[in-house]
Amino acid sequence: MTEQTVTTDGIDLCFETFGDPADATVLLIAGGAQSMIWWEEDFCARLAEAGRHVVRYDHRDTGRSTSSPAGRPSYTGEDLATDPLRLLDGLGVATAHVVGLSMGGGIAQYLALEHPKRVRTLCLGSTSPWVPTQLGRSLPGPAPQISATFTNPDPEPDWTDRDAVIAYRVDAERPYAGSLGFDEPRVRRLATQEVDRTRNMAASMTNHFILGEDPLTDARLDQITAPTLVLHGTTDPMFPIEHGEALAAEIAGARFLPLPGVGHQQPPPEVWGLAIAAIVELTEHS
């Protein structure tokens, strides 16, 4: 397990792999402003032990991938959504099992709709329909503590002060915890890893959220043909569980698996057994 870089179209994408490249590839796509470290090494290793070739990567403006100036991303939402294909091409992987979280779940939906031959199976975690729903569902909005982060955000830290940036990164995750509670030591460990390996934390915490393009406006969820698993925390404060239920209802044959007490986050260690078993089952025969 060593960090590597694929360079294509002038873009550097940093990634790591776990397991045997001869096994089926599972591509993990993180959420907005998240580098690959939020897919924890032990989580990836357990998937690899089950006979999967696991790939995690840094989005642009996170980790060690290409970075733009803060507030001035040099790419579009569609560019970000097609980076997984650039990475798979660089690895010589024709098709992959795609697992996406939050914004990464939107990217995963895009890939399944626009590039279906590249997606063997689809796992959507802590995300929402990124195209208009067809069943007339009215989905609930974020919890008050999440809305407050948009209407009254914390002041930015001094980006040259490592300790202040780590504290800011930890606090950014705090409102998204579910009823399992906020595991501050674990989040601080991951936030420290992220800060210490990211080219530009100011850009990382800003640029994904000011991209204005949505490449999925004309698509429908019922056009997804990949076998699909929806993982959703029962206490997700960003996208309440109805969002996951809507995805499962509109994607033909999708399995819905609630994660008890989980918030808006990668599956935490408390539910790794449940989540990993479900992903292994999904990817077993497809």
UniProtKB/TrEMBL annotation:
The lineage of its organism: Bacteria, Bacillati, Actinomycetota, Actinomycetes, Streptosporangiales. InterPro entries: AB_hydrolase (IPR050471), AB_hydrolase_1 (IPR000073), AB_hydrolase_fold (IPR029058). Residues 25-264 form the AB hydrolase-1 domain. GO terms for biological process: glycerolipid catabolic process. PANTHER family: AB HYDROLASE-1 DOMAIN-CONTAINING PROTEIN (PTHR43433:SF5), HYDROLASE, ALPHA/BETA FOLD FAMILY PROTEIN (PTHR43433). Gene3D superfamilies: alpha/beta hydrolase (3.40.50.1820). Keywords: Hydrolase. GO terms for molecular function: triacylglycerol lipase activity. This is Alpha/beta hydrolase.
